[in-house]
Amino acid sequence: MQHVRRPDPQVIVIFGGNGDLAKRKLLPALFHLEVAYLLPDDYRIIGNSRGDFTNEEFDRFAREAIAKLGRCQPEGEHWDRFAERLTYVSGSFTADDQEPLASAIRAAQKELGGDAQLLAYLAVPPKAFSVLTRALGEAELNIGSRIVFEKPFGTDVESFGKLGALVHRYFDEEQVFRIDHFLGKEAVQNILALRFANGMFEPVWNRQFIDHVEIDVPETLGLEKRAGFYEGVGALRDMLVTHLFQVMSFVAMEPPYALEPKPLADETAKVFESIRPLKPEDVVRGQFEGYRQEEGVDPNSDTETFVAARMFIDNWRWSGVPFFMRTGKRLKEKHQTVTLAFKEPPRQMFREHESVWFERDHLTFQLGEEAGVSLAFLAKKPGPEIELGPARMSFEYDAAYGSEVMGAYEYLLHDALLGERTLFTRGDGVERTWELVQEVLEKPPSIHVYPPGSWGPKEAEDLIAPRRWHVAREENHLRNSG
Ligand code: BG6
Question: Which one-letter DSSP state was computed for residue 91?
Answer without folding.
Answer: S
